[in-house]
């Protein structure tokens, strides 16, 4: 999908300063190295955060025109989209339900107890996870597994920004994945980074917290 509103959002993200500046790079939850897109740094009361909500809502409406929003469950991927998903569900209206997740470990999330209860009592047609940035899909995959374990029959995944050609962890589940923005960014194994990229250039390296 190459809609004008998505292109505008991508430009605004790049202007916002949430991408690591020159001289700094991060380790991701997957263990890969690269410049981090830190959606957590977008303030809740900012125009960019409101635009993020609107873009996700529009994307869901366009992608799932055949789904009754009264039977749509939207799962956050902690901590990145816990504050986003309730607003998305509210804007979609029609009874869409927001399901939050919590961290189990740096690479794993699960539905909260409240979210599990909601899902079990909700007559859903589709459960879709919303992630901010997809690198390998590692954390999203744990959210998807948690939803399936709680009884989700049809699950799909949405990433705001997909930074690599493939999200292997989501693919391994056989789950349909959608990405609002697919704009590839250098995302390297530690060895490749030491050989020819940011580590090799002496850029500041920040381990995943």
Counting helices, strands and paired strands, the structural category is: alpha/beta
Strand content: 15-25%
Count the E strands.
11
Sheet with the most strands, sense and barrel status:
5 strands, parallel
| Coarse shape | globular
Give the end-to-end Cα distance, rounded to a whole number of Å. 33 Å
Tell me the radius of gyration: 17 Å
Query: For the residues shown, what is the average pLDDT?
Result: 95
Report strand order across the widest sheet. Answer: 4-3-7-8-9
Order of helices and strands: HEEHEHEEEHEHEHEEHE
Low-confidence stretches: none
- What is the count of DSSP helices, taking H or I runs of 4+ residues? 7
Question: What helical percentage do the residues reach?
Answer: 25-40%
Descriptive account of the structure:
The radius of gyration is 17 Å and the shape is globular. The chain has seven helices and eleven strands. The longest helix has 17 residues, at 47-63. It starts with a helix and ends with a strand. The strands form three sheets. It has a five-stranded parallel beta sheet, with helices on both faces. It has a four-stranded mixed beta sheet with strand order 10-2-1-11. Helix 1 runs antiparallel to helix 2 (47-63) and helix 2 crosses helix 3. With 209 residues, it is α/β, with parallel strands linked by helices.
């Amino acid at each position: 999908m190459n809609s004008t509103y998505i292109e505008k959002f991508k430009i605004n993200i790049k202007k916002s300063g949430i991408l690591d500046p020159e001289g700094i790079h991060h380790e991701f939850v997957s263990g890969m190295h690269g410049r981090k897109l830190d959606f957590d740094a977008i303030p809740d009361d900012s125009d960019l955060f409101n635009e993020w909500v609107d873009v996700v809502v529009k994307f869901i409406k366009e992608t799932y025109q055949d789904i009754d929003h009264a039977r749509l469950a939207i799962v956050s991927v902690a901590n990145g989209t816990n504050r986003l998903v309730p607003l998305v569900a509210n804007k979609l209206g029609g009874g869409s339900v927001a399901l939050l997740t919590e961290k189990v470990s740096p690479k794993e999330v699960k539905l909260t107890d409240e979210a599990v209860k909601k899902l079990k009592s909700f007559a859903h047609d589709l459960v879709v996870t919303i992630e901010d940035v997809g690198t390998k899909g590692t954390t999203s995959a744990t959210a998807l597994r948690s939803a399936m374990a709680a009884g989700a029959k049809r699950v799909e995944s949405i990433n705001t920004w997909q930074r690599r050609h493939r999200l292997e962890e989501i693919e391994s589940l056989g789950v349909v994945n959608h990405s609002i923005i697919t704009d590839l960014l250098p995302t390297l194994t530690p060895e490749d980074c030491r050989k020819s990229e940011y580590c090799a250039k002496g850029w500041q390296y920040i381990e995943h917290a």
